[in-house]
Amino acid sequence: MPVWLRGHSWRQSGSAVFLSLPVPGVRVTAANIFCTERYLKVSVPPFLFEAILYAPIDDTNSTAKIGNGIVFFTLYKKEVGMWESLTLENASKEKLQYLRENAVLKAHEKAKEETEAKKVTKREHKKYALEATMKLEEAERKRIEELKEQEKQKVTKELELWKDQLKDVENQKKVQKEGQLHEEVEQLKEKKKEKINKTSIPSEETLKTRLKPTKGCRGSCSMFSENLKEEQLPAPRSSGTIKINFTSRVFPTALRESRVAEEEEWLHKQAEARRIISADLSELKDLKEEEKNPDWLKDKGNKMFATGNYLAAVNAYNLAVRLNNKLPLLYLNRAACHLKLRNLHKAIEDSSKALELLTPPVPDNENARVKAYVRRGTAFCQLELYAEGLQDYEAALKIDPKNKTIEKDAEKIRHVIQGTMQN
Amino acid sequence: AGGAGAERPQVVSHVQQALSYTLFDCKWVPRSARLLCLGSAARGTGVLQLYELRAGRLALLREIEKAKPIKCGTFGAASLQQRYLATGDFAGSLNVWNLEAPEIPVYSVKGHKEIINSIDGVGGLGIGEGAPEIVTGSRDGTVKVWDPRQKDTPVANMEPVQGESKRDCWTVAFGNAYNQEERVVCAGYDNGDIKLFDLKTMSLRWETNIKNGVCSVEFDRKDVNMNKLVATSLEGKFHVFDMRTQHPTKGFASVSEKAHKSTIWQVRHLPQNRDIFMTSGGAGSLHLWKYEYPAQRSKKDSEGAEMGVAGSVSLLQNVTLSTQPISSLDWSPDKKGLCVCGAFDQTVRVLIVTKLNKV
């Protein structure tokens, strides 16, 4: 139960009410004061003061001064006039309640309106700022555009001038050539005339027909000058052949700088793998020389696989792996054997090991990788793990998109998956 | 980068023309405002189109269709009066055409077994001395030099040794043609090999490997003592070799630069200034570069042999014109800064590069 504060005192003028309220012993802050048009409340636990005001006040402009143990209110009346008392004395409890609630509601509404108004102004400001920057940028862009336009026009004019110059030059040349041609023809005519005068007198017509040039024709113009130039050109070169070699390369694809690092890594791995690394195999002392060579064992294994002797093939690969466990092809081929023998888990293991060893992925080991994915996929499907199987088939397709068999098999698996899902 | 800086050259797009075929090469017709577009129509035939620049647009003057798609062309071996065009097509045939009468080629030979990827000509257009010759590089791994006066057989043939697996030749260029006898051919291959053949001594003068397929090689000038060679490659790199000093083991000095972040399809030097060149990239961009020579172009190594010193390259301007690779580029020999480029978006663009005088 709050303690009601009763020690307040008040006085008034025509337009304002001055209320002083002692609040003993506790600090009052702005949050403890609640004021609306007709209702004033100060709540500082455990103290409580409330007043239903006699007449409405202007709560936005009214002030409250908080001092040492006392709060001094300056409330501006809405309507000028003298109040009979500070509060409504003969208000019924319901009316009081109603007024209280109303006050609270009104305060809420006011708060809301204020926030709304703030938001709106903020938005307006932002919009304005944005528009201003847009205008600036637009102006900048226009300026650059204009510069470019000017440049363009200047340049176009120059171009037209140049073209006209070209035309003039061409015309001049034409006239010159015609003139030259005419001169030459005249000279020849003169010479011929001289000759003829010395020998006989042929008809003038034959002269003319023989020497009739076609004026203005490009062909004969060039023929005259061309003959002259040909005499100055050297004879065609005597034929020769130069044999060339191309930069040697291990991979069949052309060299690309971005792939060099990967390719080096792969080559390095291959080189390492070929060296026998496992040393502590004492039981191997009584093996024949060739049986200690992993490549020879691999070939043996391949042959036995071809004849259908899968167990023997696996043995051969096992021995080879003991000698050198870094050759991916051993695991790859052993996986194929396990598939035939229906040792599906072992097939998956071996394909995975092969894929591990076939990194980094380069075009050189594409074929091997495709096979590894396909074999592992098959093993998964036979174990009815269709989702994993499909993943591997799709990986294989990614490397070799043109392989129709893989595509068909992938399709089949998809159908099986959809079939089981529908069930 | 692409800003309107006060003194930097600007690349101004003058005209754009959409074409209805795949454009492989575009060339200016010397001494004119006309340009030639070569390519492949959708139905698998070759197309030659002759355009003229008129008042801000390209006017089609002539369209010629040929049996096989055309990959490349050059006017380099033609005389100024005749201006015959030499082309290489997808079937490996070299043809020389008179554009006034293009029905029958002036010279024709089935020089290669596979597509002719690149062609160059020298000795014509009043530039340089010596016989006019055409060189072709093909996917069959051979590089052949032809003289239009000699039918059927090339005057030089650079082919792989018997039993050697072949590599595609992607680009060829003539150089060092400063007198009647001297001439070299530089060829770039898809495995990164660059080989320099000396035609006077009929021998391989230098080779190197730049670790990525070579898309384009060009000497800065064909008709001078070989000065600089630019080679562009896949994976966004190009190399500039200083060709004045050849070290007996280290070859030529070079500087390399990464640009375009994609294949650099072409390099073309400005005919009016051999230290400025433009590269075109697979992402549809063009970069304009300037080469600066070092203080000393050669120095002695520890054994006293001369070796070259490469300079540096600086980017003058770049611009992105298309989303598709710009596969062909040609500067006009008559108007400084005028150039044409063709991209795989079936558009040919005429550009003007300004302020080159101030570089």
UniProtKB/TrEMBL annotation, chain A:
InterPro entries: CS_dom (IPR007052), CS_DYX1C1 (IPR037894), Dynein_assembly_factor_4 (IPR052004), HSP20-like_chaperone (IPR008978), TPR-like_helical_dom_sf (IPR011990), TPR_rpt (IPR019734)
Sorted UniProt keywords: Cell projection, Coiled coil, Cytoplasm, Neurogenesis, Nucleus, Repeat, TPR repeat
Domain CS, residue spans: 3-87
Keyword Glycoprotein assigned: no
Any coiled-coil regions, as ranges: 122-198
PROSITE patterns assigned to the protein according to its UniProt record, in alphabetical order: CS, TPR
SUPFAM superfamilies with a match to the protein in the record: HSP20-like chaperones, TPR-like
A GO term from the CC aspect: nucleus
Location, primary (coarse class): other
A GO BP annotation: determination of left/right symmetry
GO molecular function, one term: nuclear estrogen receptor binding
Localization of this protein: Cell projection, Neuron projection; Dynein axonemal particle; Nucleus
Pfam family, any one: CS
UniProt TPR repeat ranges: 370-403
Protein's name in the database: Dynein axonemal assembly factor 4
UniProtKB/TrEMBL annotation, chain B:
Main location: other
Subcellular location: Dynein axonemal particle
Membrane-crossing residue ranges in chain numbering: none
Keyword Transmembrane among record annotations: no
WD repeat feature ranges: 134-147
Entry-linked Pfam families: WD40 (PF00400)
GO cellular component, one term: dynein axonemal particle
Keyword set includes Repeat: yes
Keywords assigned by UniProt, alphabetized: Apoptosis, Cytoplasm, Repeat, WD repeat
Listed InterPro entries: WD40/YVTN_repeat-like_dom_sf, WD40_repeat_dom_sf, WD40_rpt
Family annotation (PROSITE patterns): WD_REPEATS_2
GO terms classed as biological process: apoptotic process
Signal sequence interval, chain numbering: none
Function in brief: Key assembly factor specifically required for the stability of axonemal dynein heavy chains in cytoplasm.
Protein name: Dynein axonemal assembly factor 10
Taxonomic source organism: Asarcornis scutulata
